[in-house]
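Quick one, T. Sequence first:
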Amino acid sequence: MRFSRRHFFAAAGGALVPFSAPPLLFAQQEPGRPTFRVKVDMVVLSFTVTDSKGRYVNGLGPNDFRILEDGIPQKVNTFTEGNRPPVQILEDGTTRPLETAQADPERGGISTDAFVGTNVFVLFDTSNYMYRGFVYASDAIADFVRGLDRADSVAVYTFSRNLTRAAPLSRERGEVLEGLRKAVAGDDAALYNSLLLTLRDAAKVPGRKVVIVFSNGPDSASMVAPDDVRAVAEDEGIPIYVISTSDASRDPISSGVFRRIASRTGGKSFFAKTWQKQVEAFEAIREDLGNSYTVTYYPAPNPNEGFRRITIEVKSDSAKKYRISARPGYRPRAGV
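Structure tokens:
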């Protein structure tokens, strides 16, 4: 039997509206057919810019970009490069530090801390598929955690058939590593169930966040389909990075799913069978996080209630040589 993400939320005791959905506000009511309107959330959009040789392009400012949804220009609210302090974009295009900005009471105000650093959720496969490389995998994750920027927060979750929150989101590296070292090998793998629950936790955290999946690949126990999980991450704006310890050619189904989930959410996939390749993959992810841009905006009026395509353009003459890596869009939460 195939379960949708709606079924899984119900089974897990969660609300049918996923994650941090905005409240539905009463608009009008006909006999037997109530209708509602939805308060629009702020969109958090992270992306990287690379040149024709794959090198990161740094030093661009908010006025160097144009953000569109379905071709409709968007007014950028805040802008951040890497782990630098965020700035607010004023009406005349100038910027000022976010901590001096006036909070918008209708939108709940702005917390500067929410946009400093990245909230990193590491999802570690401890199923029986990972038994042989368990210790090496744990070491690779520990090295990654130690090397993160001090502004970043990190959580470590482990999974086999069930999800374990080994270390809650924290900037205290010692506490995170202690939780990681307590991980033990389990049985069957329920990767997509666990990834969905991790996304649910990440969606509750304001600001920029990513999920890093470290897995051997096969899923033998999930109730949800991978594309349902991918759609949630896409809509929530949470990039998923996948490091698989299996050979892509030996498991083409899982490999194809990993590539699709990563590319559609603005992340990347790596196939790293050896410990050295796994360390290199984590280093590549760390570089991605440190060389990315993050913008926030409140969507301009748009009648499209389905998938809204996001386009990021660089205004400079050399933009044709640049490659932008970001999620392709999202689906707004519709009223009922």
